[in-house]
Write a structure and sequence with these properties.
Blueprint: H1 2-9, H2 16-49, E1 52-59, H3 62-74, E2 80-93, E3 96-110, H4 114-124, E4 133-136, H5 142-151
Helix pairs in contact: 3-4
């Protein structure tokens, strides 16, 4: 900032108002940079603290949903799998809008098990590009989290 101030002080064409505007812009940019770093650091810290996740996928029929649920629970990759449906989905696929009746699968697990869960879902899934979304659980009942932890593989 000092180089800006020195440069502006020696140039008579700049008024005090212009100097003030430059200083405010400079400080605002500095503040934005600090905010960005702070936000990024907080997000990194939070992601390291997230132990539990909920994973969502959809399949074309109830039998596929039951198969995936069975694989995940039997291998202790999921403490609980819920199947909801049928639901109606509207989406873009291969350049066209399409609709389909699907079943939604909601999986409760731990973050460190996600790669294995993703592999099981991908191998058993009928779709070419399955939806596999992991959502962090930021807060939950202590008893529920203890139950999830107890039921999952170590």
């Amino acid at each position: 900032m000092t180089r800006w101030v020195k440069w502006l002080q020696f140039d008579p064409q700049y008024s005090c108002r212009t100097l003030l505007i430059f200083v405010l812009i400079y400080l605002f940019k500095k503040l934005l940079n600090q905010i960005n770093v702070t936000v990024i650091l907080r997000l990194c810290y939070i992601s390291l603290m997230i132990d539990y996740i909920q994973i969502i996928t959809t399949v074309e029929n109830e039998d596929n949903a039951k198969k995936i649920a069975e694989l995940l629970v039997d291998r202790r990759l999921a403490a609980c799998v819920q199947i909801a449906g049928p639901i109606m989905s509207r989406f873009w696929w291969e350049g066209k809008i399409d609709t389909a009746e699907e079943y939604q699968i909601i999986i409760k697990s731990r973050n460190d098990l996600f790669p294995e869960i993703e592999s099981v879902i991908t191998d058993a899934h009928p779709y070419e590009v399955p939806e596999i979304l992991a959502i962090p659980i930021f807060a939950a009942g202590k008893g529920y989290l203890n139950w999830i932890s107890k039921e999952l593989k170590k």
